[in-house]
Structures are given as structure tokens and as C-alpha cells.
Write a structure and sequence with these properties.
Blueprint: H1 5-30, E1 33-41, E2 44-45, E3 52-54, E4 57-75, E5 80-82, E6 95-101, E7 114-117, E8 126-133, H2 137-140, E9 157-159, E10 163-173, E11 177-183, E12 206-211, E13 218-222, H3 223-226, H4 245-254, E14 263-264
Parallel strand pairs: 1-13
Antiparallel strand pairs: 1-2, 1-7, 3-4, 4-5, 4-6, 4-8, 4-10, 8-12, 9-10, 10-11, 13-14
Length: 273
């Protein structure tokens, strides 16, 4: 009489191994791609507790957060492809909120310095990345109370008429505080509590394109490039007014390319200690 117990045991072991290998394969295939963003000042990475010297004073940022959208990758054939994101508290399928709010303390700073892409993005085959600093008009003026995260962050919203703050930079020194809030301005609607039906006169969105290292996909946010040629003080805050000199300088800096660009892929950035 044949004893089937050893055969059944062998079958179950093989089935377990096959399923385990398949699960490992699925995990490997589903592991998301990530592009890291690093805040930097003069080539050295910085954070909430970093002190920088600018305008003859010592500063640190208390909040540095910004939205990027419409992320695309250039493949080996030179074609641009949309890079869908994995939805999370920090990103929708098309929008990501990067940075940190130091006012909340280290444990609650809501720090996020990376964009997580789906495998369809195929980061491994990409040579360049392109993205827009800001939000598309279609979502910029929607009610944040009914939007999914991160489009519902109160500190990143002006109001229905103007929409979101695309970039919120706030800095502090022993003498002064200073801020730069970038967003769409000169928006026309029936009231401040109504969303406009057409694009604002000054959309203030900026698109960046830069090479991307396949081995170490990193984008640098170079704060010194943004603050170039401006003496920051409590007298020259900027809330995207097109007529204010400090805003004109900041917008000019955002449009700079090459070594002076606000967004770079400088792989030589020194780590923050």
C-alpha cells in the first residue's frame, strides 16, 4: 500500500516555495522608483536646524515646502513620457508636496523630500526629468476641504480666488523674519470666495528640465540660487506681487538656467551634518 503522506508533504513544500518565489518576484516588480529632492545652500545640504549666512545675518528656514506637478521622464529614444505617482499623503497621481514645516517640531514636521513613481514611469531607462513648480489651473482653485492630500494642507492655501501657494519659504534670524510665497496672482472671480473660471493674469508656474542620474536620481533645491542678488529683510517680503522689486528678483532667479538654476542635479552636494 502506497503511503501518500510523504508525497503530499513534498507537494506542499514545493507549492510554498513556488508561491514564495512568485511573491518575491512581485515585490521586486512592484518596488516603486524614487527621486530624492535635497535642499541645499552653496552646495551643502541643509535642514530645519541648519544656519546659513546671507544678507550679513545668520538665517534658518522655518518652512520650506513646494508643489511640483506634471512630472515627465525622457527615455533612451529621446521621448518624454508622463511619470505617474503613487498616491499617498504627500502626492496624488500628478502632484507632489515636497519640503518640511519646521514650526511643527522634528517629530511632526511633515517632512517629505522624495517623489515616489509607479513602475510605469521606468526611471531606470530615463536620462532627464521635467516638472512644473506649481499646480495646474484645474486643481489650483478647488476647495481644499474636499480635496485629497496633499491638496488640503491649510498652510499652503491662500483662498479660492488665488488658489494654493506653490512655494512657501519662511526664514528667521536673530533680528528679522522673512518670507516668500509663490502662487498665481491677479486672478479674477466674482468674489474672493469664488474660484476663477479662467487662468490668472500671472500664473507663476515654472517648468524645469534637467539630467537625471540613473544610479542616484537626485534633484537639488539650491536656496542660494533663489536668494541671489537679494538682501532679505522684514521690509522686502514677497507674496508674488509683480510690481515689488524683491519679487521681481526672485522670479528672475527662478527662471535662471545652468549653474545658477534653483533646481539642479549637482551630485557633489555635501551632506548635512
Amino acid at each position: 500500500m502506497i503511503n501518500f503522506k510523504p508525497l503530499i508533504l513534498i507537494f506542499l513544500i514545493n507549492l510554498f516555495l513556488i508561491m514564495s518565489c512568485d511573491n518575491l518576484g512581485m515585490s521586486a516588480r512592484e518596488t516603486p522608483d524614487e527621486v530624492a529632492f535635497i535642499p541645499s545652500y552653496n552646495g551643502e545640504s541643509i535642514g530645519c536646524d541648519s544656519v546659513i549666512t546671507h544678507s550679513d545675518d545668520r538665517w534658518h528656514y522655518t518652512q520650506l515646502q513646494f508643489y511640483i506637478s506634471d512630472i515627465s521622464l525622457k527615455d533612451s529614444m529621446g521621448k518624454w513620457q508622463k511619470a505617474p505617482l503613487i498616491p499617498s499623503p504627500y502626492q496624488t497621481s500628478n502632484v507632489a508636496l515636497l519640503g518640511e514645516n519646521c514650526n511643527l517640531g522634528k517629530e511632526n514636521s511633515k517632512a517629505n523630500w522624495s517623489v515616489i513613481l509607479t513602475k510605469q514611469a521606468r526611471l531606470i531607462n530615463s536620462s532627464h526629468i521635467r516638472f512644473t513648480l506649481g499646480l495646474p489651473f484645474a486643481v489650483n482653485h478647488l476647495n481644499p476641504l474636499t480635496q485629497q492630500s496633499p491638496l488640503n494642507v491649510p498652510t499652503m492655501f491662500w483662498g479660492w480666488q488665488q488658489g494654493h501657494k506653490f512655494l512657501r519659504l519662511e526664514m528667521s534670524s536673530s533680528k528679522h523674519d522673512w518670507l516668500f510665497h509663490l502662487g498665481s496672482v491677479a486672478c479674477q472671480s466674482a468674489s474672493p470666495l469664488r474660484a476663477p473660471i479662467k487662468e490668472c493674469r500671472y500664473p507663476n508656474r515654472y517648468t524645469f528640465e534637467l539630467p537625471l542620474s540613473k544610479a542616484n536620481p537626485v534633484v537639488i533645491f539650491e536656496l542660494s540660487a533663489l536668494l541671489k542678488n537679494i538682501m532679505i529683510s522684514e521690509q522686502n517680503h514677497c507674496q508674488s506681487s509683480p510690481n515689488k522689486p524683491s519679487c521681481q528678483i526672485l522670479v528672475t532667479n527662478l527662471q535662471q538656467q545652468g549653474a545658477l538654476a534653483v533646481f539642479q542635479n549637482n551630485q557633489q552636494t555635501r551632506p548635512h551634518e
